[in-house]
Amino acid sequence: MTDRETSAAAERMSRRRARVLPILAFAFLTQQAAYFSGPGFGTGDRAVDHVRISAWLVMSVVLLVVLATGGGWIYGREVRRIANDEATRAHRDDAFRWGFIVTISAALISYVASMYEAASAQEAIHVIVTAGMLTALLRFAFLERRAMRDA
Fold it and tell me: What count of Cα atoms within 13 Å lies in the side-chain half-sphere of residue 90?
């Protein structure tokens, strides 16, 4: 691949990532709505509950890896290196910072709420991880889309 082709592929990857991240956030949020609206959420008593919880775990891990690495694994190493430039790394750092703040805040709120309403550890962890993950994902998507618009 020539330098020009590599740069063009990196640009396509960056634009695709900026378009796909909000869709992934929406899919993750929709998955949470289905989880929390179900009967006896968090109990895990039925086989379908195990599938829903497993799907949430898999989706959470995939989103975490996408956030941490920038995704684009179908592209070569050089394309990923160019696409994950200094601005993208700064966006990712900011997104993780926001995600961390919301995660800690959700944990503190869960702690206080547990004084008034009992919740299982699974339910609390689910809420905490979901809040932090969505925040980081949406923040990264927002910053990437804004950078693409300004470019």
Answer: 5
Rounded Cα gap, residues 27 and 130, in angstroms: 12
Q: In the chain, which ranges are continuous DSSP H helix?
A: 3-37, 47-69, 77-83, 86-113, 121-150
**Rounded Cα–Cα distance for residues 52 and 73 (Å):** 26
Write the DSSP symbol of residue 38.
S
The pLDDT tens digits for 59-79 are 999 999 989 988 878 888 888
CB atoms inside a 10 Å sphere around CB 143: 20
- Mean pLDDT taken over the chain: 87
